[in-house]
Amino acid sequence: MKGTPAMDAARKQRIKESFKTITQHEEALTDLVYKKLFSLCPHARAMFPEDMTTHKMQMSVALGLIVKSLENFATVEEHLMEMGGEHADSGVKPDYYPIMSDALLSAMATVSGPAWTPQIEEDWTIAINTIISSMLKGTSDSDQAREAA
Ligand code: HEM
Fold first, then answer.
1. Among the atoms of ligand 1, which is closest to the Cα of residue 80?
2. Measured in angstroms, how far is the CA atom of residue 84 from the centroid of ligand 1?
3. What is the SS3 string spanning the chain?
4. Quick check: CB of 42 below 6 Å from ligand 1?
5. What are the structural domains, with CATH classification, of the chain?
6. How many A from CA of 149 to the centre of ligand 1?
7. Residue 149: pLDDT band by 50, 70, 90 thresholds?
8. How far apart are CA 43 and CA 67, in angstroms?
9. Which of 21, 92, 134, 137 has its CB 3.0 to 4.6 Å from that of 80, i.e. a possible disulfide?
10. How far, in Å, from the CA of 88 to the mean position of ligand 1?
11. Among 37, 55, 56, 104, which is best to mutate for testing ligand 1, by the most ligand atoms less than 8 A from CB?
12. Which of 56, 60, 54, 67 is nearest to 12 (CA)?
């Protein structure tokens, strides 16, 4: 994801504030994310376990950690790259990420209600693109590692 604008201090602050609202609806958020993901990409359903409870919790924890680390993104970047490599190994294709991004944004908009503004949408779009870029960096690293092996 080339050309993603940098996260300036004001943007990080808005995301943190917005996340406070979003986490009040944690369960609804993850329900909506996967409902949307599976409606946009039905064949992704088979990649996940039947019982999504643990996975929804993992996604929620991951988002919380990322938001907490916005001030020092380098501390989570390596973990995101590793996660991207693991996702690639589980068959997650780069093409699926924009679908996850749409699912996350749409779920966040729904649970945020009137607090969701065009500015917040832009902030989260940039944050999610940054996360996905890091995960995809790990994907190309794992491809390179495989090719080198
Ligand atoms: C913003 C992007 C994403 C984030 C933050 C994310 C986060 C996570 C987390 C935290 C886990 C738990 C295990 C681990 O740490 O690796 C996980 C597992 C998984 N993710 Fe993602 N993910 C993302 C994108 C995607 C996409 C696009 C797909 C495919 C449509 C996907 C499919 C999976 C699958 C199949 C698992 C394993 C499920 C299981 O066996 O429980 N993820 N993801």
1. 5
2. 8
3. CCCCCCCCHHHHHHHHHHHHHHHCCHHHHHHHHHHHHHHHCHHHHHHCCCCCHHHHHHHHHHHHHHHHCHHHCHHHHHHHHHHHHHHHHCCCCCCHHHHHHHHHHHHHHHHHHHHCCHHHHHHHHHHHHHHHHHHHHHHHHHHHHHHHC
4. no
5. 9-148 (1.10.490.10)
6. 25
7. very low
8. 29
9. 134
10. 10
11. 55
12. 67
First and final C-alpha spacing in the chain:
27
Residues in the chain: 149
Q: Which residue's CA is minimally distant from atom 8 of ligand 1?
A: 59
pLDDT, tens digit (0-9, with 9 covering 90-100), for 72-115:
888 899 999 999 999 999 999 999 999 999 999 999 999 999 99
Which tokens sit at 60?
């929620």
pLDDT in tens, 120-134: 999 999 999 999 999
Rounded to whole angstroms, how far apart are CA atoms 40 and 45? 10
Atom number, ligand 1, closest to the C-alpha of residue 37: 30
Which of 7, 4, 58, 6 is CA-nearest to residue 34? 58
Nearest alpha-carbon partner for 62 in 35, 12, 26, 17:
26
